[in-house]
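To whoever is on call:

I kicked off a structure prediction for a single chain this morning and the downstream step that reads the tokens threw a length-mismatch warning. I double-checked the sequence; it's 281 residues and nothing unusual in it as far as I can see. Pasting both halves so you can look.
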Amino acid sequence: MERDLRNEALGFLKELGATSKKELEKKLGVKGRKSRIQFDWAVKQLKEEKKIRKIYDEIKHEEMLTLEPEPQTVQIDALHVLLGSEEKVPVDAYLFAIDASTLRDAVQIRPIEIVRGHLFGEQRLVVDEFIDKKIKKYIQTDPIPLIPDAVLVQMTPSVSIMESKETENIFNLSFKWSRDFVTEERPFILLDGQQRLEAVRRSKVALRVPVVAFDQKVDAKKLFLIANTKQPLKPAHIRELWREIEKLPAAMKLRADVSKIVDRLDTEDDSPFFGIIRSPA
């Protein structure tokens, strides 16, 4: 029986959102000349029927296939605060929480690259091992998964900002959202949090994350650099904290158990290591 490539393609585009032709061919298992001709014919028919569109993604530098977008209007109440030095010009910031999957499809992820002699974008490549073995595993095994670090974004001009007439320092952010938008159609530019958002997407766990949104006046590259220049905690410091936390995710439990054994070796009178194990505390 001949495959129904039209409906299969529509199904994958509904699941994946904007997808390159090459990626869609891979998902559909398109191989060989005959199969490619059938695939190209199915895509042509769907375009003529205005069920899908073919659009060039200026940031990914490739042609994308998407369903015809049916954008939803998303409205979020955000707390307005001023950040930075009081002596100099403070920076406007808007704080809110949102479903991570919704945010992942609303942000432009711009990889760092040289375009026509100018530096464009700021994001590094996704680190699969870090995402899968650390963040994703934590999200899937913690009984109460929580990502407290705020995702940093910059609003594009497509985001409407309206001050509340009822509550002081509360603003309404309104924007169009669709999983079928290509990169430059999305309302926010991601500054920090790419690995976290990708981990939540892969975990398939519904999770709300905190967000700090800045307007167009901030320097995106500078904020990315500041957010990613952090002094990591020393392993010994982490082990000290593990001892006191009761409900750890499975991803951390084994190491926490080892830390507790070390603690007993240091504190029990009959231990040969009593009082001689050094730790930050």
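Update from on-call: the warning came from a stale cache, not from the record. Cleared it. Sanity check on the structure: The chain is about 35% helix and 25% strand.
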